[in-house]
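Your task
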Amino acid sequence: MRIGVTALGCALLASGAQLAAGPSEEVNAEQFYTTARQVEKKGALALFDKRTKVMQAQIKDAALSARAANAAATDRGSPHFCVPDAARKKGLNVQQVLNMLGGLGQPLRQRSTLQAAWLEALKKSYPCR
C-alpha cells in the first residue's frame, strides 16, 4: 500500500521551532504540525531552510511505519485504513498532509508522536468500509 508523500519536500520545511532530528516516534505531532504551518507561510523560501530535510525524513518515517502497521493489520484480517487505488497512485501533497494532521485536533496532536498521529490521520481519512 503506497501513500506518496512526494510534495512534502517542497513545503514542509522550517520555522523558529526546534525539531528533533529523530525518527517519527520521537517527534511530537503538535510541534511538527505547528512548525510546518508556520513554514508554509514562507512559500518558496522554505526550501532553503536546513530543517526541511529533517521534516521530510520524519514524515516519510511516519508514512513507512503506518504502511507497515496497516500491512500487519491487513494480514490479521482487519486493516487500519483502506486507501482507494486512485488516491494511492496520486499520492498526497503538502496541503493534504497538513489538513489531515490538522483534522485530528490539537489535544490529540499534543499527546501523540508524529508516528501515532499520522496513523490516526490515515484511519480517519481512509476508513475501511
Observations:
- Confidence is low (pLDDT under 50) at residues 1-21.
- Residues 51-75 form the longest helix (25 residues).
